Amino acid sequence: MVDVARRAGVSVATVSHVLNETRPVRPGTRKAVLDAIDDLGYIPNTLARSLVTARTRSIGLAVSAISNPYFTEILQGVESSALERGYGLLIADPHDDPAHELTVVRLLHERRVDGVIVAPSAEPAGLLEYLARREIPAVFLDRLVGDAHDQVCAENARPVEQLVGHLADLGHTRIGLVAGCLA
């Protein structure tokens, strides 16, 4: 940052304000700083910034079967939204296994992600305890894990009820459901 400030003819604080958008900087000054950054190939040291702010601007995403189009769309949406807000994404596949799930979330936590988004296994008790004990912000996808957590899930009960009702109204009496694991 010192080299950028010297090249742009401004203080290091001004460079910081341009990079972090913490205070307004006159357009000409901003352009001089951005030009100096470009000329020098400066890349901010996010590790150093994380030590000062205690934030990494990263989110951990743990979803099984990433090749599944459902999770691929979720991944793309989360990544797009995170990038728009200046966050990076670290991705892990817990393989729908409670022990592996806890391992990957621990690894994400060790990398100091600011929060996690998890599609939990059918038995997430160890994960829930780990996250709660460490007060790690978390959002759960795809499976409900109790009322005490932020969750994003499809509402299946009412639509299935309507579908079965519709089929029954048409006179169907033998109705089957083919689905994945319901746990």
UniProtKB/TrEMBL annotation:
Alphabetical list of SUPFAM superfamilies matching this protein: lambda repressor-like DNA-binding domains (SSF47413), Periplasmic binding protein-like I (SSF53822)
A GO molecular-function descriptor: transcription cis-regulatory region binding
Keywords, in A-Z order: DNA-binding, Repressor, Transcription, Transcription regulation
Gene3D superfamilies documented for this protein: 3.40.50.2300, lambda repressor-like DNA-binding domains
Domain named HTH lacI-type: residues: 1-53
SMART domains per record: HTH_LACI
PROSITE patterns: HTH_LACI_1, HTH_LACI_2
Keyword Transcription: yes
Protein name (record): HTH lacI-type domain-containing protein
Organism (species): Streptomyces violaceusniger
Species classification: Bacteria, Bacillati, Actinomycetota, Actinomycetes, Kitasatosporales
